[in-house]
């Protein structure tokens, strides 16, 4: 990876993290203490987009797959926030929400990634 590509990857990661912050804030506005739907939406969206990018296969140059997939979508999605929010939900006595967050995120994100790969594979190569 060239210095320019590495720089683009780092910048894309920052843009992805900023996008996560904005989308989570938009979804969670006025929902303080509620189920962490914002991060679920972020992770499902990111999983779908990474699936789509992956589904495009060789039509996407490896450098751009790294910049967009690892950088931007890696910065956008977050497993650590899901983990921390799941523990916090359990600590607050919301064990059913904790399990829903943990298992719901897994199922929704895997399905979203699969749909993205499926749709990405429909594009001509």
Question: Mind sketching the topology for me?
Answer:
Blueprint lengths: L2 H26 L8 H19 L6 H15 L2 H13 L3 H26 L5
Describe this structure in words.
The protein has 125 residues and is an all-alpha fold. The protein has one domain. Helices cover 79% and strands 0% of the residues. It contains five helices and no strands. The protein has helices spanning 3-28, 37-55, 62-76, 79-91, 95-120. Helix 2 packs antiparallel against helix 3 and helix 4 (79-91) runs antiparallel to helix 5 (95-120). The chain is globular and about 50 Å long. The two termini are 24 Å apart.
Q: How is the main sheet built?
A: none
Shape: globular
Helical residues, percent = over 70%
End-to-end CA span: 24 Å
Number of helices: 5
The pLDDT mean sits at 95
The gyration radius over C-alpha positions equals 16 Å
- List the domain count as a whole number: 1
H/E element sequence: HHHHH
Tell me the fraction of residues in β-strands, as a range. Answer: under 5%
Structural class comes to mainly alpha
Number of strands: 0
Low-pLDDT segments: none
